[in-house]
């Protein structure tokens, strides 16, 4: 376990190495967040009473999304593992007396964690200081906050396990681009990164609920604002755990297969 | 310690000619060529031996190293290292070995070298005392004290290579696979790395397998040389055997033969210094040509 903790730590340190990148990222996120808040304000005014989420919940959802962007964003980060696969650096990884799967899992969690930690504090501070309806609200209850943290951890687990599965698929194609675009791009949409899931049509949502995507950021962010009532959380958390298990198992099985077939190209 | 018996490995390589029409054609119909990287390779190495594994480009050197280090599964044949099959008991196997792939990096790009070392310490569960002792030894011998705190990306190739070598030795492996470990090293570092490898071998009976194109490395380190060409073992003996083979083979090449006679005078190898290395390159070139393994 200590080994994997070290991977987390080193990746964490690695992520904190660039200060300027974090500052610029912060600015982007603030501006983006404010823009989204305005966009949803327009939607809210147009829809009137039929809004599927309360406006304050949407604002909170947006700020949480921006604060923890690095934890769930599928289109950034984790590039080091793709490049390891692509340029053959994986040969060294295979020479380590540890499970490659766990090693990379820890590494991704470390990478995402370090970035999220760097960004979330300033983003959250700003979000709590913003005027009027743009301001982020406190969690609805202590219970909700605790469950927010629990589901957040589970959600990160699901997201990373999905990412690992995609990583493993990259062993079968020479370029990782395709898998990334398809799987991670759809993940972005279906997990409610573009529009929160309650805005989707009822039938569509029913289908999406069978996929792993809604069990990522969708759950913790809505628990926080009370949009997803604490009382209804049991089955949702069970599904989070279920997907975590399924995705980890899928990733591990693929890895076992890959491990035997792997050919590291080049001298 | 290490035995390889009848190991074969082939790769499928996509090939096409240059030109746009060829690109389009290959889009619909790929031509593949099967490259036999290793054809029935057998050898055995005893504990504490230092073996130079040489051959021209594309001979199968790296494939052999990859199989021995458990990265690659051969198509057929058996291979045991220290009683284990590398690709079957990978985790157990790699605890005992150290690998340097001269062309790849095991150090984390963005963080100081010492952080990568600390991580390796944990990965291999090296105790604090052993780690500190080893680190001190390596720092001194490979002159790392100045560069340990620098992020890897800001190191020169030679500096990085010294760190790579150190990184592979932190856990005191019993077997060391070196795949072109002296790429980009300056004279001082090369000598330091060579001395260090010899010292490891003397003090810890570390088994060393070295592939390189730098014949001076071979001369300095290898007691035994295995020559591979086109996936087959062609010669297994001492450096002197190699020279003799080349002399025998190069009788009709007078300009090389002259050099070989000088090179063959091993007694005054010391005084010849760098020159004998150049001669050895000639010996090798002649041998490769004569054996038709280019």
Structural write-up:
The complex is a heterodimer of chains A (267) and B (294). With 267 residues, chain A is an all-alpha fold. Chain A has twelve helices and no strands. Chain A is globular, with a radius of gyration of 19 Å. Chain B has 294 residues and is an alpha/beta fold. In chain B, strand 8 (224-229) and strand 9 form a beta hairpin. In chain B, helix 9 crosses helix 12 and helix 10 crosses helix 12 (274-291). Chain B is globular and about 55 Å long. Residues 250-277 of chain B have low confidence and may be disordered. Chain A binds chain B through residues 2-3, 6-7, 9-10, 13-14, 17-18, 80, 87-89, 91-92, 94-99, 259-264, 266-267, and chain B through 11, 57, 61-62, 66, 69-73, 87, 90-92, 94-95, 97, 99, 101, 103-106, 108-111, 115-116, 118-119, 122-125, 151, 179-180.
Instruction: Characterize the largest beta sheet of chain B: strand count, sense, and whether it forms a barrel.
Output: 6 strands, mixed
Number of strands of chain B: 9
CATH topology of the largest domain in chain B: Rossmann fold
How confident is the prediction overall: mean pLDDT of chain A? 85
CATH architecture classification of the largest domain in chain B: 3-Layer(aba) Sandwich
Oligomer: heterodimer
Number of helices of chain A: 12
Strand content of chain A: under 5%
Q: Considering DSSP H and I runs of 4 or more, what fraction of the residues of chain A is helical?
A: over 70%
Radius of gyration of chain B: 21 Å
What's the CATH C level of the largest domain in chain B?
A: Alpha Beta
Query: Which regions of chain B have little confidence, pLDDT < 50, spanning 5+ residues?
Result: 250-277
User: What percent of residues of chain B adopt helix (DSSP H or I)?
Assistant: 40-55%
Report how far the terminal alpha carbons of chain B are from each other: 31 Å
Strand content of chain B: 15-25%
Overall number of domains of chain A? 1
């Amino acid at each position: 376990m200590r080994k994997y903790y070290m991977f987390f730590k080193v990746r964490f340190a690695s992520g904190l190495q660039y200060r300027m990148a974090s500052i610029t990222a912060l600015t982007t996120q603030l501006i983006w967040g404010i823009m989204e808040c305005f966009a949803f304000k327009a939607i809210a005014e147009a829809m009137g009473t039929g809004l599927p989420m309360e406006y304050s919940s949407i604002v909170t959802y947006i700020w949480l999304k921006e604060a923890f962007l690095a934890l769930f964003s599928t289109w950034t980060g984790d590039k080091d593992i793709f490049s390891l696969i692509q340029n053959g650096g994986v040969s060294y990884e295979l020479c380590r007396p540890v499970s490659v799967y766990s090693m990379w899992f820890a590494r991704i969690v470390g990478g995402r964690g370090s970035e999220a930690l760097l960004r979330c504090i300033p983003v959250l501070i700003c979000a709590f200081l913003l005027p009027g309806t743009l301001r982020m609200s406190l969690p609805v209850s202590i219970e909700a906050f605790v469950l927010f943290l629990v589901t957040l951890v589970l959600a990160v687990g699901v997201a990373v396990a999905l990412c690992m599965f995609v990583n493993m698929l990259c062993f079968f194609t020479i370029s990782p681009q395709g898998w990334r675009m398809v799987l991670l791009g759809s993940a972005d949409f279906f997990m409610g990164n573009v529009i929160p899931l309650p805005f989707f049509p009822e039938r569509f949502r029913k289908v999406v609920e069978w996929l792993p995507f809604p069990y990522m950021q969708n759950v913790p962010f809505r628990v926080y604002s009370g949009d997803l009532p604490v009382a209804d959380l049991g089955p949702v958390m069970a599904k989070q755990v279920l997907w975590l298990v399924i995705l980890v198992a899928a990733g591990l099985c693929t890895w076992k297969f890959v491990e035997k077939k792997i050919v590291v190209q080049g001298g | 310690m290490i035995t390889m018996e009848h190991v074969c490995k082939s790769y499928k390589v996509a090939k096409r000619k240059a030109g746009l029409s060829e690109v389009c054609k290959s889009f619909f119909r790929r031509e593949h060529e099967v490259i036999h990287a290793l054809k029935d390779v057998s050898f055995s190495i005893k504990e504490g031996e230092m073996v130079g594994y040489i051959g021209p480009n594309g001979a199968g050197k790296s494939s052999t190293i990859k199989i021995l280090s458990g990265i690659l599964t051969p198509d057929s044949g058996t291979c045991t290292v220290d009683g284990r099959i590398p690709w079957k008991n990978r985790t157990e196997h790699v605890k005992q070995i150290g690998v340097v792939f001269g062309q790849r990096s095991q150090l984390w790009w963005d963080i100081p070298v010492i952080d990568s070392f600390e991580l390796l310490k944990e990965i291999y569960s090296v105790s604090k005392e052993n780690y500190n002792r080893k680190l001190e030894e390596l720092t001194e011998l490979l002159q790392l004290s100045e560069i340990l705190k620098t992020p890897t990306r800001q190191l020169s190739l030679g500096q990085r290579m010294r760190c790579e070598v150190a990184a592979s030795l932190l856990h005191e492996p019993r077997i060391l696979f070196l795949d072109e470990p002296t790429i980009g090293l300056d004279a001082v570092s090369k000598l330091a790395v060579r001395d260090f490898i010899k010292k490891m071998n003397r003090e810890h009976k570390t088994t060393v397998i070295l592939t390189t194109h730098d014949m001076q490395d071979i001369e300095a380190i290898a007691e035994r040389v295995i020559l591979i060409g086109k996936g087959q073992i062609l010669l297994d003996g001492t450096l002197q055997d190699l020279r003799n083979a080349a002399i025998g083979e190069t009788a009709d090449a007078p300009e090389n033969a002259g050099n070989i006679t000088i090179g063959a005078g091993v007694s005054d190898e010391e005084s010849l210094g760098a020159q004998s290395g150049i001669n050895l390159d000639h010996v090798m070139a002649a041998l490769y040509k004569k054996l038709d393994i280019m």
